[in-house]
Design goal:
Elements: H1 2-10, H2 12-30, E1 39-42, E2 45-48, H3 50-69, H4 78-98, H5 109-133
Antiparallel strand pairs: 1-2
Helix pairs in contact: 2-3, 3-4, 3-5, 4-5
Length: 134
Amino acid sequence: MRKIIKSILKNKKLLTITFWLWVAMIAYFTFTPHSPRLRLDIKEQSFRLDYLFHFIVYFGLTVLYFLWKSDKNFKIKTKFLLYFIFTAILFSGISEILQHYIPDRSFNPTDFYSNTAGIILGIFVPMLKLKLIR
């Protein structure tokens, strides 16, 4: 597992491209009108899967950033991490607010909370996992 991660970390160009494609994908789907409603119906309960989707998308974005900016020892400069956290949460908040102006979309604070949870856990999970691998 460690060898795979190290080989991925060496290819910073691929990580850079993948990160920015991920950002573009988020922007595209955020600003696309008439997005499908993802729901899971169990008996008489209905669960919105889009909250889980928001979490996964921003978790993935954060892990990609972490891998892109970390060095060969899986360490990342604090200033890069703080800059990313601030920018990602700001991007998430602004994109949610702008959805108010897109047909069939609306601002949903729970989406924002799910995005933020994905960002925060996307920082700590790789740090813990990579610490255990070392």
